[in-house]
Design a protein that fits this description.
The chain is an alpha+beta fold. The chain has two helices and four strands; from the N terminus they run E-H-E-E-H-E. A four-stranded antiparallel sheet has the order 2-3-1-4.
């Protein structure tokens, strides 16, 4: 299982809610955490790539990128 972290620009609970909704519906996501406070999203997945998850987050209209280590 892989753990991915993303920097996502979220300004309100609606923003974090949108990200939560798409990750909840995404097949292959085992566990995730969306933090409005830190602007970070962490996702655990056993069969999705970092890029596939990033693309889904970006479809919400939020600025998102892979967090630097």
């Amino acid at each position: 299982m892989a753990l991915y972290t993303y920097d996502v620009t979220m300004t309100c609970s609606g923003c974090s809610g949108a990200v939560t909704r798409v990750l909840t519906k995404l097949q292959g996501v085992d566990k995730f955490d969306v933090s409005l406070e830190t602007q970070k999203v962490t996702v655990e997945s056993s069969n999705l790539t970092e890029e596939e998850i990033l693309a889904v987050i970006q479809k919400t209209g939020k600025a998102a990128k892979v967090a630097s280590a």
